[in-house]
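Schema walk-through. Below, the input block comes first and the output block second. Nothing else is stored per chain. Lengths vary across the set, and this one has 127 residues.
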Amino acid sequence: MPIVSISLNEEILTELDKLQKSMGFSGRSEAIRAGIRSFVSEEKQKSDLSGNIHAILLVVHNDEFDHVVSGITHNFEDLITTHLHSKIEKEKCMELFLIDGDAEKVSTMTKDFQTNKNMDTVKLVAL
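--- output ---
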């Protein structure tokens, strides 16, 4: 089996260790493999979307990155029917987008958030 090395900050490593214990994984590698399988499955499901779709996009980030969210959002104003912004704890913010439009463009918007290292959580749910 090939070996892949990754670097994790202390916060992520602590969370990984908690998940490993609470979910009963035998080690970090097993937990990471399960996470990767889940990610691959989600991405495959999104790639199967086509035509006009309705979706919810959830983004969590530090409030210092509001300007980044705003920049991405402006590129997709034609898709967004509703945008809710809420402070969820201390410096964390949650953005909830109700989206209606072309699946390819929705996918591009999602990827723009996912590939931005300043975003903590990005989830797309197609309705």
